[in-house]
Amino acid sequence: MPRVGVLALQGDVREHTSMLERVGADVVAVRTPDHLDDLDGLVLPGGESTTMAYLLTTSGLRPGLAKRIDDGLSVFGTCAGLILLAHEILDGRSDQWSFDVLPLSVRRNGYGRQISSFETNVDVKGVGEVRGVFIRAPKIETWSEELEILASHDHGDGDHPVLVRHETLWGCSFHPELTNDDRVHRLFVDAL
Ligand code: GLN
Fold first, then answer.
1. Is the pLDDT of residue 114 over 90?
2. For ligand 1, is residue 79 a contact (CB within 6 Å)?
3. How confident is residue 119, by pLDDT bands cut at 50, 70 and 90?
């Protein structure tokens, strides 16, 4: 049984936890640096990236997690979690930091504000159509050719990746934990 952490400082922790349990993971709520021990994978949930970044610093998790990522820990960042992994944050707060490990730039609220939240079908490579729930979602604006694009969406301005993978790191603009469909989580857990 793979041991998968969910960063449990802020955001939709409960929804990811139940999805991961459904696909057969042993789930750990990660709140302190020692919770990173023995993880096979980690989910950074959706929520508010500035708040999560602040709590990563105050909890002391930031350096330990940066080291684990560097050592090859599999991490799946969804929505705010994607922002935390991005190389560059556009429209971020001036002091906003990220782990800078996914080779892409992401625009906070790039699909619009809360009122512009939307749902659409997204075709995921190797999975098929899933329902994509976009809530103040980050938009991937630029990306490296090395990035594996598992799904894209055209919101009227051409295709932008919405589910990506680079080595052990995964990122998603939408919220796969907010539907009843566990196939995106299964994809991540099966790759551990
Ligand atoms: N816009 C949020 C942020 O900047 C992310 C939204 C989400 O995770 N649903 O953190």
1. no
2. yes
3. very high
The residue contributing the CA closest to ligand 1 atom 5 is 80
**Does residue 108 line the site of ligand 1, with CB under 6 A?**
yes
Distance of alpha carbon 184 from alpha carbon 107, whole angstroms: 23
Q: 3-state DSSP call for residue 64? A: helix
**What is the predicted pLDDT for the residue at 189?**
98
Contact (CB, 8 A) for 20 and 6: yes
What are the tens digits of pLDDT across the range 27-37?
999 999 999 99
Domains of the chain with bracketed CATH: 3-190 (3.40.50.880)
* Residue 109, ligand 1, Cβ within 6 A: yes
